[in-house]
Amino acid sequence: MKTVFSGLKPSGDMTIGNYLGAMKHWPKDQGKHRTIFFIPNLHAITTRQDPIQLKKRTLDLVAWLLTVGVDPDQSIILVQSMVPQHAELAWILNNYVTMGEMSRMTQYKDKAKKAGPEGLLVGFFDYPALMAADILLYDSNEVPVGEDQIQHIELTRDIAKRFNTIYGDTFVVPKGVIPDTGARIMSLDNPKIKMSKSDHPDSSISLTESTDSILKKFKRAVTDSDNKIAYDKANKPAISNLIEIYSGFTDASVAEIEKKYADKNYAIFKSDIGEIVAHKLSLLQNDFNNIRSDEASLYSIIDVGNSKASQIASEKLKIVKEKTGLL
Ligand code: AQP
Asked: For 191, phi and psi rounded to 5 degrees?
């Protein structure tokens, strides 16, 4: 049976980018494959977090996983800091990746520019080694992610192959899987950059956003120069991004959307997409609020998931230690 593994970092309120690029797709693999979903809170602290918010967001994310249909009876849900093998394997893997490889990571280069020297932490630079450990601990075959994470998965593949070449078959070499639409949702006020939960609020829609605010943000979203609803990523990046969001929330194809809005203008399209997203999110928010209110259940789901994960992870780590001569 294949293993599918993915996660969501509790570094801010989840955006519709996280939803369309990642979490929406995860429940589909349940039952068909072994599915493992985790909350990478050790990744979150690579940029400064408020401790109270971090704890709250970790539980929020468990509740969001359940809201979108991840079933704890079919999938393992774990919290990274509670399964210490992640950090331990990351330390070992640090020694199978070079400074040059890490320095080439686009996400590091992009965020390094924004963070400035004071905000640039060693943990942030080292993030991909921890991510490799997360994935390799569970013999993951597939890692469904948004496009921004593909380069990290390529690096994970290189680390796994390198380790296997030195010590013999140890790790499964994983494959990154990106969705057909929604793999890279862009900022609403700048279609050249990815929508990110840690960016300023006007650039994104969070999953907990009110209807009023969603409608306003879509109304204000930047558009391209002509007034035609047509998908053309190179020449019309802003409207193409909105079409992808529309498609992700309705499952209508790009062609169907273009046809429906062939003789309509941007204002109508933006008003419709606002209504669609607001309606879907209000349904999800209702479910989320119910699930989130029962914290005891969330903790017991995490406990069960962590203990299943620990069992798998400790077996893998034992093999790695034996092969590398670590007592
Ligand atoms: N804009 C996006 N479009 C499509 N997919 C996206 N993902 C993130 N942004 C988009 C995917 O969501 C999953 C969880 O990502 P993450 O929270 O672990 O980290 P991230 O990729 O760094 O997401 P953010 O929102 O940009 O977080 P911050 O601002 O804290 O760094 C991943 O599969 C990711 O590809």
From this structure: -70, 5
Whether the CB of 111 sits within 6 Å of ligand 1: no
Q: Is the pLDDT of residue 246 over 90?
A: yes
Which ligand 1 atom sits nearest the alpha carbon of residue 149? 35
Residue 31 and residue 77 in one domain:
yes
Predicted TM-score (pTM) of this structure: 0.93
Whose CA is closest to 139, among 310, 321, 326, 313?
313
Mutate to test the pocket of ligand 1, among 4, 9, 60 (most ligand atoms within 8 A of CB): 9
Query: Do 285 and 299 share a domain, yes or no?
Result: no
Residues recognised as catalytic? 111, 194, 197
Hey, whose CA ends up nearest to atom 19 of ligand 1? 9
Burial class (CB in 10 A: 0-12, 13-18, 19+), 225: exposed
What CATH number corresponds to the domain at position 222?
1.10.240.10
φ and ψ at 179, to 5 degrees? Answer: -70, 155
- Tens-digit pLDDT profile for residues 89-145: 999 999 999 999 999 999 888 888 877 777 789 999 999 999 999 999 999 999 999
Q: What is the CATH number of the domain that holds 116?
A: 3.40.50.620
Total structural domains in the chain? Answer: 2
> How far is it, in rounded angstroms, from Cα 20 to Cα 183?
7
Range of the structural domain that residue 245 is part of: 208-289
Does 185 contact ligand 1 (Cβ within 6 A)?
Answer: yes
Cβ of residue 11 lying under 6 Å from some atom of ligand 1: yes
One domain for residues 135 and 174: yes
Task: Tell whether 115 and 83 lie within a shared domain.
Answer: yes
Give yes or no: residues 91 and 36 share one domain: yes
